[in-house]
Structures are given as structure tokens and as C-alpha cells.
Amino acid sequence: MSKDPNRHSQRSKLVKGHQARKRFGQNFLSDPFYIQRIVDAIAPTKQDSMVEIGPGLGAITELLVDQVEGLHVVELDNDLIPRLEASFGSRNNFHIHHADALKFDFGQLATTKSEAKLRIVGNLPYNISTPLIFHLLQYNHLIEDMYFMLQKEVVQRICAPVSTNHYGRLSVMSQYYCQTQMLFEVPPGAFQPAPKVDSAIVRLVPRPASELLVVQPQQLKQLVITAFNQRRKTIRNNLKQWFSDEALAQQGVDPKLRPENIELASYIKLANALSNGQL
Hints:
alpha/beta, Rossmann fold, Helicase, Ruva Protein, domain 3, seven-stranded mixed beta sheet, two-stranded antiparallel ribbon, elongated
């Protein structure tokens, strides 16, 4: 934990000095215990090339910037840019990107002189968390790991095992590309303003290319979208445009199962069967 007794009061003043914007889904993390706990989970090193999405008022930023080789922050809010520049702009390793993370090319950050893969952290707005994760999965080969503060329910969906209520499209696609783990929960009182939902920290570690066995990843994405579009129906009904009962059975899938009862390995087999014309 930080030894500076004034840091918490200084951070609270900063939070009060900025009006959180609903359209950006802003809830600023202000509790020093959870700020430090997140940084401890990341365990930054001097060799790291770190990316922070939505740094806000810099609560996590101030604990990262002096510990890593390079820190890139991606922030959309115009009002926060000068605050971040005033606080951290004097550091040679600090770089601000005024951009929408949903449209940002994270690949450009991996073309710097450092050969280190990107380590990504973010307190993600709840309204964009799922599409942003899918956007980042496109850069999986450039990323070492990711640590996100998300709505607890979203983290449960990411990490959900098969045959549970939370298991769905986000579970399948996240677990195809990454090893997933919920680290700990964060209560509403740790934020200013306090959100109406519980939050949690998730760790995503990209899988090596040797474990990504789908011939056409876009085929897996479309298959999973279609399978879970009507999750209460059986897989035979949801995938009938592609598979007969016999074709499903040939791939080891019971046609009477619902999509949440089908494991990742089976979705991979189905996607490859489509890609290879094995129907």
C-alpha cells in the first residue's frame, strides 16, 4: 500500500473537480485499497510496455507510470486530456492517445522499439465493455495479458464454464482466445460516483497460436452468434441452416442439446467442419 497519507484526499479532490459523464460511463475508482490491489495483481516491471484504457483521473496511472518502460493511455474525454498531461506529461515514458478505444489501432503500439508484448489494463465503461473486448481480441498475438475492471456479471460471463446460466457467446469467444480468471470483486463504494452494480477484476491471458485451432476464426464467430441467438432452443434448431441432425452427431454434438450445454471444443469442431466443407 502507498505510504503517502495525502494521496487519498488529493484523489478525492480531483474526482470532485470533474463531473463524471454518463455518456462515457464514467465511474472513477477512488479507494486506495482496490487501486493498489489491482496494481499488485498486474505486478508491473521495468520491461513492460503497458497500455491503460480509460485512465480517467489517473488513479491507477500514477502507480504504473514510474514502474514500466512505457505507458500508453487511451482516453476519449476531452476534459481529462489536459489533466493527464499536467499530471504525467513530464515523464518521457508517458504517451497520451486521445481516441475512442473501440476504434483505436492497438497494433501501432506494438511497433515501438520495445519487443515486449503489450500489457493492457482498464476500468472499462459498462456500456462498451463487451464490444471493446472483442475489438482487443483482434490483437491477441500482440498482447501478453489484460486486466479489466468490468461489471461483475460480464466477468461471470467471460469466465463461465459450460452448462451454466452465464455461459454464452462471450464465454466461448473469450475462452477460445484467452485463459480467463476472475481475480476479485470491487464494491460500488470504491468508486466516485458509485455505480448501481457490483464490479470485478478479470485477467485474460492470450493463448499461443498453437492452441488456436480454428481454420477460419470468422466462421467460429458467426457460428457462435447464430447458436446463441435463441439460447433456449436446441442446437438442431439454431444451426439447421448448416447442419442436419446426422451432421451434428458426426461431429460429436447431440442435436437435442441447448447451446449453453456445448463445450468450446465442440464449437471449434463445428466451425472447422463448416470451413472444410465436411457436411
